[in-house]
Specification:
With 196 residues, the chain is mostly helical. The model is unreliable at 145-155 and 186-196 (pLDDT under 50). It is 66% helix and 0% strand. The longest helix has 18 residues, at 47-64. The chain is globular.
């Protein structure tokens, strides 16, 4: 008898990515069902506890980086409103907090920390969505004058948002994060320009 503790969703996604040749999204789960005869699933951590765990992990880092109390509160609020529903496991919280511990102290004086934290969380949660933003950086942070100088004409952020929603990489779970980074609700373009 063997006892295996794992994040079933993460292992199934990994198996699916590694071994699926037919684009069957359930092949990882099917494989796990064949291997493990008796599966006992623990209940998911409630969202308020995931939020509390994330905040407890990143608050000391935010204070260490000498962020203003206002910026710390913005990060906490956005973690609850935007990241809370998108985070599925304690594993993702640990990954996000580790990424922030590695990078935020290096750039905290040069970026708008709330946007940077959201971008790094998106990098962990959905690398394809993060790359979509990185690939379109100039469209997101440049003013019309700078874009015109490059000889490229781009539409406003609303049309960019609608265009990206058609992208196969677009994941609806992170829609509120993308809207926030694009400026829905209003945000400081200068600060976000520094973060991207």
């Amino acid at each position: 008898i063997y006892v295996v503790a794992m994040d079933k969703d993460m292992v199934a996604r990994s198996l699916n990515t590694e071994y699926d040749e037919d684009d069957n999204k359930n092949s990882g789960y099917d494989f796990l069902e064949k291997i493990f005869q008796l599966q006992i699933e623990l209940p998911k951590i409630p969202s308020y506890q995931r939020y509390k765990y994330l905040i407890n992990r990143i608050t000391p880092l935010l204070q260490e980086c000498s962020l203003s109390n206002e910026d710390i509160e913005v990060v906490k609020t956005e973690c609850g409103q935007l990241l809370g529903p998108a985070i599925d496991s304690a594993h993702e919280i640990i990954l996000i907090s580790n990424v922030l511990c590695a990078y935020l102290p290096l750039v905290c004086k040069k970026v708008y920390a709330p946007d940077f934290c959201l971008l790094q969380a998106l990098k962990v949660l959905s690398p394809a969505m993060y790359q979509m933003i990185r690939n379109n950086k100039i469209r997101l942070v440049s003013d019309k004058k700078n874009i015109a100088n490059l000889g490229t004409v781009y539409h406003d952020k609303e049309s960019f948002y609608e265009e990206q929603k058609q992208n196969p990489c677009y994941d609806q779970r992170y829609d509120n994060i993308i809207k926030r980074l694009l400026g829905f609700p209003p945000f400081n373009t200068l600060q976000t320009r520094k973060s991207l």
